[in-house]
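The material for today's practical consists of a large collection of protein records. Read left to right, the backbone structure tokens trace the chain's path through space. An example says more than a description, so a record of this kind follows:
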Amino acid sequence: KTKKVLVDRVSLEAKPGSITAILGLSGSGKTCLIRGLASCLDFAAVTTGKVTFKVGHEMLPAKQTDFALVSQHDCISGFMSVEEHIRYAAALAGTDATRVLKLAHALGLEGHLMHLRCQHLSGGEARRVSLCVDGLVRSDARVLLGDEITTGLSATDVLKLAVTIRHLADI
């Protein structure tokens, strides 16, 4: 078998509380890098390199649980209401649903939207539900990784998302 290098010679430093963007052309390896950081790649693949956290003066190896990944693809059940879906995801993650519901409210998921079945949501509404359940539900993660998280969102929703992420980074 021929080895294929997917991402080569990447060095990244993100300060605590910072928001960092990875930019590049389509097909340049952004998703591969993000999944590699989140340890979502096929473990049978040969990988080299390491991900570490600097704590004080010590470099500690990162663990998969240090990362929460918001995928570029929405993964929600059309048969549950928005609120049911958020509560279910929070229960699976062992996270307080009240916290996640506050985040949903901050992203504009409130009122009648909370009672709609997910199959009836617009693309932007479904994206906001995915943001809550894919990554924001993980309260123990040190790093929130988002892969094309603004896809399908209006300019207003992108601003709400940026403010919410800024708030999360400050906590």
Notes: The two ends are 47 Å apart (CA to CA).
